Amino acid sequence: MTEVRIAEAAWLREPLLSKLLSALDRGGEEARVVGGAVRNALMGEQVGEIDVATTALPDEVVRRVQGAGFRAVPTGIEHGTVTVVAEGRSFEVTTLRKDVETFGRHAKVAFGRDWTVDAERRDFTMNALSMSPDGRVHDPIGGIDDLKARRVRFIGDASRRIAEDYLRILRFFRFHAAYGEGEPDADGLAACIAGRAGLDQLSRERIRMELLKLAVARHAVPAAAVMTEAGLLIRVLGGVPDLAGFSNMTKVEAEIGTAADPVRRLGALGARISEDAIRLWQRLRLSNAEHDRLAYMVKDWWRVSPGDDKAARALLYGLGPERFTDRVLLAWSRSAAGTGDAAWHELATLPQRWTAPVFPLKADDFMKRGVKKGPALGETLRAAEAQWIGADFPSDAAAIAAIADAAAVSNIGK
Ligand code: ATP
Ligand code: MG
Question: Is residue 95 within 8 Å of 55, Cβ to Cβ?
């Protein structure tokens, strides 16, 4: 096989990475970049986080990187992982491992010195590549051919590898959606279907991470369709996925030029009513902020429609730009109108043209008019704000004073 090198990549020549690799790759120890960074570099995709593997034992890693001026955080030292930090950047450095008893990720593992053994413990052939500091790529499993063919393939026997860690079912679809082309690998797909009951054992956090990444992957729509047909998606979402709405969401996002957003995509796929948002929150252990977003997104989305500019401004004022965009895109993607519909487009892009003003009246304005502190004051403020929104956000002083007067009069003495 011809030697493959990653030479010109800017990230590889980054001084901080070079410093880290040269601290670890000397004195009888070896270090390489592994996993996603190598895969993405070879595919011409953007390189995100950089994972490093090394023969050096964790204590030695800590000693060496500290010596080179990095901070070492023992994030998963029992698994051999040290997070190495400097200048606001961080790298995960993991000591090579080998299985002592084979239950995959849950296996009893020991540190090892064999790069091929470490590669074979990984999930897919395209994730088993590693790269020496000089840019030389090592491919003990045949990952480069699969990567070129955009084929996501399990290392070894798919069913066995899935039984070791059922998260690999979701990872199979996530990587296929992000890097694959065409139909998913048939053996892998069959093994995922056969192993689907195992999804129920997974921790909710791990499912959440994979689903959110899957939701924004390039080919998320066909992947979600296959997962649905295979009975997998219903199992992790705990409800019936809305594939048409999900597909339309990807199109309307592109239509208005907004980036794919994992939480919004999850809402499009799995939430029709508030109860769905609550269920996803619990099943996937979403953060409270993520749940809030979903809750606002699905609330009465069916009442949103284009054509009423004043109502649109009131909605944007009430929700703020992010929640407005979530809800409008959801309503649009579930409407009978096509993704090319001009009126929906106009509504969905309102935040690009109009920023809601700040309500100009304060408690003081009403106390001056004789409203007493307490519940009546709050009620007056709310009534005046509703009037102001209903009048389409007037900004002239006379109109605002008239709204304040009217609201105060009806609440004085309460
Ligand atoms: P990205 O970070 O861009 O999503 P990645 O390939 O770096 O992609 P990670 O989840 O960060 O993915 O995992 C890093 C590497 O660790 C993978 O490339 C793979 O080699 C290995 N790996 C991660 N999770 C598993 C797993 N559940 N089973 C086997 N190998 C895994
Ligand atoms: Mg990674």
Answer: yes
- Cβ(164) – ligand 1 distance below 6 Å: no
Asked if 161 contacts 168 with a C-beta cutoff of 8 angstroms, the reply is yes
Ligand number nearest CA of 170 is 1
**Cα 48 to middle of ligand 2, angstroms:** 7
Give me the residue label for tokens 């990952």: 143
Instruction: Kindly report the protein residue whose alpha carbon is nearest to atom 22 of ligand 1.
Output: 122
Mention every residue, 6+ apart, whose C-beta is less than 8 A from residue 289: none
Nearest residue by C-alpha to atom 21 in ligand 1: 122
How is the chain split into domains, by residue range?
A: 2-148, 150-239, 242-356, 363-409
**CATH code, 150-239:** 1.10.3090.10
Structure tokens at 14: 């980054």
Q: How far is the CA of 346 from the centre of ligand 2 (A)?
A: 38
Strand pairing report for 51-54 and 89-95: parallel
Pick the CATH number of 2-148 from 3.40.50.1980, 3.30.460.10, 3.90.230.10, 1.10.3630.10: 3.30.460.10
- Interval 137-181: pLDDT, tens: 999 999 999 999 999 999 999 999 999 999 999 999 999 999 999
Q: How many of the other CB atoms lie within 10 Å of CB of 193?
A: 15
Compute the distance from residue 307 Cα to the ligand 1 centre, in Å.
Answer: 47
**123 C-beta closer than 6 A to ligand 1:** yes
Q: pTM higher than 0.90, yes or no?
A: yes
Q: Give the integer Cα–Cα distance in Å for 130 and 119.
A: 8
